[in-house]
Write a structure and sequence with these properties.
Layout: E1 14-16, E2 24-26, E3 31-33, H1 37-45
Antiparallel strand pairs: 1-2, 2-3
Protein name: Uracil-DNA glycosylase
């Protein structure tokens, strides 16, 4: 079964940083990244992000 593609922009934990080297961040996991956080989570764990929560 293919993993679900998640949109970090729609997640309440996603934020944009001031760091030009790492412009995207995830408050749930506490990291900043060049790529989308959901891509990093998928690469590290092999699963879609389990902390995804849709914004209100």
């Amino acid at each position: 079964m293919p993993e679900q593609k998640l949109s970090c922009v729609k997640c309440k934990y996603f934020y944009v940083t001031w760091d030009q080297r790492f412009p995207r961040g995830c408050k749930a996991f506490g990291f900043k990244t060049k790529k989308w956080p959901s891509v990093e989570v998928l690469a590290a764990s092999g699963q879609s992000c389990l902390r995804f929560e849709k914004k209100n």
